[in-house]
Amino acid sequence: MKPTRGSRIFQAFLILFMILLCIVMLYPFVHMLSISLSTPAESLRAGIHLFPREVSFYAWERVLTRDDIWIGFGNSVFRTVIGTICSIVFMSMGAYPLSRKYLPHRSFFTMLIVFTMFFSGGLIPTYFLIKNLGLIDTRLVYIIPGLISTFSLLILRNFFQAIPEELEDSSKIDGANDLQILFRIIMPLSLPVLATLSLWSAVAHWNAWFDAVLYIQDPHKQVLTTFLRRVVITGEDLSIFSSDAQSTVLGYAEPIKAATLMFTALPIIVVYPFLQKYFVQGTMVGSLKG
Protein backbone atom coordinates (compact mmCIF):
# COMPACT_ATOMS: atom_id res chain seq x y z
CA MET A 1 0.00 0.00 0.00
CA LYS A 2 1.39 3.37 -1.04
CA PRO A 3 1.93 5.66 1.98
CA THR A 4 -0.21 8.74 2.05
CA ARG A 5 1.11 12.26 2.14
CA GLY A 6 0.16 12.58 5.78
CA SER A 7 2.05 9.43 6.78
CA ARG A 8 5.16 10.61 4.89
CA ILE A 9 5.05 13.94 6.69
CA PHE A 10 4.61 12.18 10.02
CA GLN A 11 7.55 9.84 9.31
CA ALA A 12 9.72 12.80 8.31
CA PHE A 13 8.77 14.55 11.54
CA LEU A 14 9.68 11.44 13.57
CA ILE A 15 13.06 11.15 11.84
CA LEU A 16 13.80 14.83 12.44
CA PHE A 17 12.74 14.52 16.07
CA MET A 18 14.97 11.48 16.64
CA ILE A 19 17.94 13.25 15.02
CA LEU A 20 17.44 16.26 17.29
CA LEU A 21 17.04 13.96 20.30
CA CYS A 22 20.31 12.16 19.47
CA ILE A 23 22.11 15.49 19.12
CA VAL A 24 20.81 16.70 22.47
CA MET A 25 21.89 13.45 24.16
CA LEU A 26 25.32 13.18 22.50
CA TYR A 27 26.43 16.80 22.70
CA PRO A 28 27.24 16.78 26.47
CA PHE A 29 29.66 13.88 25.92
CA VAL A 30 31.26 15.55 22.90
CA HIS A 31 31.51 18.80 24.83
CA MET A 32 33.21 17.20 27.85
CA LEU A 33 35.60 15.22 25.64
CA SER A 34 36.55 18.40 23.79
CA ILE A 35 37.13 20.29 27.04
CA SER A 36 39.26 17.45 28.44
CA LEU A 37 41.58 17.67 25.44
CA SER A 38 41.81 21.47 25.46
CA THR A 39 44.30 23.99 26.75
CA PRO A 40 43.17 26.29 29.58
CA ALA A 41 42.42 29.15 27.21
CA GLU A 42 40.47 26.90 24.85
CA SER A 43 38.48 25.33 27.69
CA LEU A 44 37.32 28.76 28.85
CA ARG A 45 36.27 29.85 25.38
CA ALA A 46 32.56 30.64 25.15
CA GLY A 47 30.39 28.87 22.60
CA ILE A 48 29.93 25.34 21.32
CA HIS A 49 32.81 22.90 21.81
CA LEU A 50 32.71 20.08 19.26
CA PHE A 51 36.47 19.61 18.96
CA PRO A 52 39.42 21.38 20.61
CA ARG A 53 41.10 24.04 18.54
CA GLU A 54 44.18 23.78 20.74
CA VAL A 55 44.85 20.19 21.77
CA SER A 56 46.50 19.29 25.07
CA PHE A 57 46.73 15.88 26.77
CA TYR A 58 47.90 17.37 30.06
CA ALA A 59 44.57 16.82 31.86
CA TRP A 60 44.35 13.15 30.83
CA GLU A 61 47.98 12.61 31.78
CA ARG A 62 47.36 14.01 35.25
CA VAL A 63 44.18 11.95 35.72
CA LEU A 64 45.57 8.64 34.47
CA THR A 65 48.72 8.88 36.60
CA ARG A 66 46.81 9.18 39.88
CA ASP A 67 46.99 6.03 42.01
CA ASP A 68 43.79 6.77 43.92
CA ILE A 69 41.71 7.04 40.75
CA TRP A 70 42.82 3.54 39.72
CA ILE A 71 42.08 2.23 43.22
CA GLY A 72 38.61 3.74 42.95
CA PHE A 73 38.24 2.26 39.47
CA GLY A 74 39.09 -1.22 40.76
CA ASN A 75 36.64 -0.91 43.66
CA SER A 76 33.92 0.30 41.27
CA VAL A 77 34.53 -2.64 38.94
CA PHE A 78 34.40 -5.04 41.90
CA ARG A 79 31.20 -3.47 43.17
CA THR A 80 29.53 -3.42 39.76
CA VAL A 81 30.44 -6.95 38.69
CA ILE A 82 29.94 -8.77 42.01
CA GLY A 83 26.96 -6.66 43.02
CA THR A 84 25.17 -7.19 39.71
CA ILE A 85 25.78 -10.96 39.67
CA CYS A 86 24.65 -11.38 43.27
CA SER A 87 21.59 -9.20 42.73
CA ILE A 88 20.45 -11.16 39.68
CA VAL A 89 20.98 -14.52 41.40
CA PHE A 90 19.20 -13.59 44.63
CA MET A 91 16.37 -11.74 42.91
CA SER A 92 15.80 -14.76 40.67
CA MET A 93 15.74 -17.04 43.72
CA GLY A 94 13.17 -14.74 45.31
CA ALA A 95 11.05 -14.17 42.20
CA TYR A 96 10.78 -17.82 41.21
CA PRO A 97 8.82 -19.09 44.25
CA LEU A 98 6.67 -15.95 44.23
CA SER A 99 5.69 -16.74 40.64
CA ARG A 100 4.46 -20.25 41.48
CA LYS A 101 0.80 -20.61 42.39
CA TYR A 102 1.46 -23.46 44.82
CA LEU A 103 3.50 -21.25 47.19
CA PRO A 104 1.47 -20.86 50.42
CA HIS A 105 0.48 -17.26 51.24
CA ARG A 106 2.07 -16.02 48.02
CA SER A 107 0.00 -12.82 47.95
CA PHE A 108 0.94 -11.98 51.54
CA PHE A 109 4.67 -12.33 50.86
CA THR A 110 4.35 -10.26 47.69
CA MET A 111 2.56 -7.44 49.49
CA LEU A 112 5.14 -7.57 52.28
CA ILE A 113 7.89 -7.06 49.70
CA VAL A 114 5.98 -4.29 47.92
CA PHE A 115 5.61 -2.52 51.30
CA THR A 116 9.36 -1.92 51.35
CA MET A 117 9.11 0.18 48.17
CA PHE A 118 7.15 2.86 50.01
CA PHE A 119 8.44 2.71 53.58
CA SER A 120 11.93 2.41 55.02
CA GLY A 121 13.60 2.73 58.40
CA GLY A 122 15.29 6.02 57.57
CA LEU A 123 18.92 7.06 57.29
CA ILE A 124 19.95 6.90 60.96
CA PRO A 125 18.37 3.49 61.75
CA THR A 126 19.88 2.14 58.53
CA TYR A 127 23.32 3.38 59.57
CA PHE A 128 23.06 1.67 62.96
CA LEU A 129 21.87 -1.51 61.26
CA ILE A 130 24.88 -1.48 58.93
CA LYS A 131 27.15 -0.81 61.90
CA ASN A 132 25.70 -3.63 64.00
CA LEU A 133 26.11 -6.02 61.07
CA GLY A 134 29.82 -5.20 61.00
CA LEU A 135 29.71 -3.83 57.45
CA ILE A 136 31.25 -0.43 58.19
CA ASP A 137 34.47 0.09 56.22
CA THR A 138 34.13 -3.19 54.35
CA ARG A 139 33.52 -3.74 50.63
CA LEU A 140 30.51 -5.92 51.47
CA VAL A 141 28.63 -2.75 52.36
CA TYR A 142 28.49 -2.07 48.62
CA ILE A 143 26.83 -5.43 47.95
CA ILE A 144 24.57 -6.58 50.78
CA PRO A 145 22.33 -3.56 51.58
CA GLY A 146 21.26 -3.15 47.95
CA LEU A 147 21.21 -6.83 47.09
CA ILE A 148 17.49 -6.89 46.25
CA SER A 149 15.65 -4.30 44.19
CA THR A 150 11.94 -4.66 44.87
CA PHE A 151 10.95 -3.21 41.51
CA SER A 152 13.27 -5.56 39.60
CA LEU A 153 12.14 -8.54 41.67
CA LEU A 154 8.51 -7.83 40.76
CA ILE A 155 9.43 -7.58 37.07
CA LEU A 156 11.16 -10.96 37.31
CA ARG A 157 8.17 -12.45 39.15
CA ASN A 158 5.77 -11.33 36.43
CA PHE A 159 8.08 -12.64 33.71
CA PHE A 160 8.50 -16.01 35.40
CA GLN A 161 4.72 -16.31 35.69
CA ALA A 162 4.45 -16.18 31.88
CA ILE A 163 6.69 -19.26 31.47
CA PRO A 164 4.49 -22.38 31.03
CA GLU A 165 4.31 -24.51 34.15
CA GLU A 166 4.42 -27.63 31.95
CA LEU A 167 8.17 -27.10 31.59
CA GLU A 168 8.55 -27.27 35.35
CA ASP A 169 6.33 -30.33 35.64
CA SER A 170 8.24 -32.24 32.96
CA SER A 171 11.55 -31.35 34.62
CA LYS A 172 10.34 -32.65 37.97
CA ILE A 173 9.32 -35.91 36.30
CA ASP A 174 12.91 -36.19 35.05
CA GLY A 175 14.17 -35.75 38.62
CA ALA A 176 15.17 -32.06 38.65
CA ASN A 177 14.83 -30.11 41.89
CA ASP A 178 13.75 -26.48 42.23
CA LEU A 179 17.26 -25.01 41.99
CA GLN A 180 18.03 -27.02 38.87
CA ILE A 181 14.77 -25.89 37.30
CA LEU A 182 15.55 -22.27 38.12
CA PHE A 183 19.15 -22.18 36.91
CA ARG A 184 18.89 -24.59 33.96
CA ILE A 185 15.43 -23.83 32.57
CA ILE A 186 13.81 -20.67 33.93
CA MET A 187 16.81 -18.31 33.86
CA PRO A 188 18.07 -19.33 30.37
CA LEU A 189 14.56 -18.68 29.03
CA SER A 190 14.58 -15.28 30.76
CA LEU A 191 17.87 -14.03 29.30
CA PRO A 192 16.44 -10.82 27.75
CA VAL A 193 14.82 -9.59 30.97
CA LEU A 194 17.84 -10.68 33.04
CA ALA A 195 20.15 -8.71 30.75
CA THR A 196 17.91 -5.67 31.08
CA LEU A 197 17.86 -5.88 34.88
CA SER A 198 21.62 -6.51 34.89
CA LEU A 199 22.16 -3.27 32.99
CA TRP A 200 19.97 -1.37 35.43
CA SER A 201 21.81 -2.85 38.39
CA ALA A 202 25.25 -2.25 36.86
CA VAL A 203 24.51 1.41 36.13
CA ALA A 204 23.13 1.90 39.65
CA HIS A 205 26.22 0.34 41.23
CA TRP A 206 28.63 2.25 39.02
CA ASN A 207 27.01 5.62 39.73
CA ALA A 208 26.47 5.08 43.47
CA TRP A 209 28.50 7.24 45.83
CA PHE A 210 26.39 8.13 48.86
CA ASP A 211 26.84 4.80 50.66
CA ALA A 212 30.62 5.04 50.16
CA VAL A 213 30.61 8.48 51.79
CA LEU A 214 28.53 7.21 54.74
CA TYR A 215 30.12 3.85 55.46
CA ILE A 216 33.69 3.90 54.12
CA GLN A 217 36.61 5.71 55.74
CA ASP A 218 39.49 3.71 54.27
CA PRO A 219 40.67 5.53 51.09
CA HIS A 220 41.72 2.18 49.59
CA LYS A 221 38.07 1.05 49.62
CA GLN A 222 36.54 4.16 48.08
CA VAL A 223 34.86 3.91 44.67
CA LEU A 224 35.52 6.01 41.60
CA THR A 225 32.45 8.21 42.02
CA THR A 226 33.65 9.51 45.39
CA PHE A 227 36.87 10.60 43.70
CA LEU A 228 34.77 12.29 41.02
CA ARG A 229 32.73 14.03 43.71
CA ARG A 230 35.88 15.36 45.37
CA VAL A 231 37.19 16.84 42.15
CA VAL A 232 34.07 18.07 40.36
CA ILE A 233 31.40 18.80 42.99
CA THR A 234 33.17 19.74 46.20
CA GLY A 235 35.99 21.46 44.28
CA GLU A 236 38.88 20.20 46.39
CA ASP A 237 42.39 21.46 45.69
CA LEU A 238 43.33 20.26 42.21
CA SER A 239 47.01 20.28 43.11
CA ILE A 240 46.54 16.67 44.23
CA PHE A 241 46.85 15.77 40.56
CA SER A 242 50.48 16.63 40.16
CA SER A 243 53.72 17.71 41.71
CA ASP A 244 53.92 20.45 39.08
CA ALA A 245 53.48 24.08 39.97
CA GLN A 246 50.09 24.65 41.55
CA SER A 247 49.32 27.49 39.15
CA THR A 248 49.83 25.13 36.19
CA VAL A 249 47.41 22.53 37.56
CA LEU A 250 44.82 25.10 38.60
CA GLY A 251 44.98 26.55 35.10
CA TYR A 252 43.86 23.17 33.83
CA ALA A 253 41.01 22.94 36.36
CA GLU A 254 38.23 22.63 33.78
CA PRO A 255 40.07 20.13 31.51
CA ILE A 256 40.96 17.99 34.54
CA LYS A 257 37.34 17.98 35.74
CA ALA A 258 36.17 17.07 32.23
CA ALA A 259 38.76 14.29 31.91
CA THR A 260 37.68 12.86 35.27
CA LEU A 261 34.04 12.90 34.18
CA MET A 262 34.85 11.18 30.89
CA PHE A 263 37.01 8.57 32.61
CA THR A 264 34.12 7.77 34.96
CA ALA A 265 31.50 7.56 32.21
CA LEU A 266 33.51 5.61 29.60
CA PRO A 267 33.11 2.07 31.07
CA ILE A 268 29.30 2.21 30.97
CA ILE A 269 29.39 3.77 27.49
CA VAL A 270 31.61 0.92 26.28
CA VAL A 271 29.54 -1.86 27.89
CA TYR A 272 26.09 -0.58 26.90
CA PRO A 273 26.24 -1.44 23.13
CA PHE A 274 26.88 -5.11 23.97
CA LEU A 275 23.72 -5.26 26.11
CA GLN A 276 21.57 -3.00 23.97
CA LYS A 277 19.97 -5.80 21.91
CA TYR A 278 19.01 -7.67 25.09
CA PHE A 279 17.78 -4.44 26.64
CA VAL A 280 15.43 -3.71 23.73
CA GLN A 281 14.30 -7.35 23.49
CA GLY A 282 13.70 -7.57 27.24
CA THR A 283 11.67 -4.37 27.24
CA MET A 284 9.52 -5.55 24.34
CA VAL A 285 8.94 -9.01 25.81
CA GLY A 286 8.08 -7.48 29.18
CA SER A 287 5.56 -5.16 27.54
CA LEU A 288 3.93 -8.09 25.73
CA LYS A 289 3.87 -10.54 28.61
CA GLY A 290 3.48 -7.91 31.38
- Assigned CATH superfamily of the largest domain: MetI-like
Radius of gyration: 24 Å
Helix content: over 70%
Largest sheet: none
Please identify, by name, the CATH architecture of the largest domain. Answer: Orthogonal Bundle
Looking at the structure, the CATH topology of the largest domain is MetI-like fold
Number of strands: 0
Give the end-to-end Cα distance, rounded to a whole number of Å. Answer: 33 Å
| Tally of domains | 2
- Ranges where pLDDT stays below 50 over 5 or more residues in a row are 286-290
Q: How much strand?
A: under 5%
H/E series: HHHHHHHHHHHHHH
Describe this structure in words.
The chain is an all-alpha fold. The chain folds into 2 domains: 1-56, no CATH class; 64-289, MetI-like fold (Orthogonal Bundle), CATH 1.10.3720.10. It has 14 helices and no strands. The protein has helices at residues 5-36, 40-43, 58-64, 67-99, 106-118, 123-132, 150-161, 165-173, 178-189, 191-207, 210-215, 224-233, 246-251, 253-289. It comes from Saccharibacillus sacchari. This is Carbohydrate ABC transporter permease.
What's this, in brief?
The protein has 290 residues and is an all-alpha fold. The protein is built from 14 helices and no strands.
Task: List the SSEs and their pairings.
Elements: H1 5-36, H2 40-43, H3 58-64, H4 67-99, H5 106-118, H6 123-132, H7 150-161, H8 165-173, H9 178-189, H10 191-207, H11 210-215, H12 224-233, H13 246-251, H14 253-289
Protein name: Carbohydrate ABC transporter permease
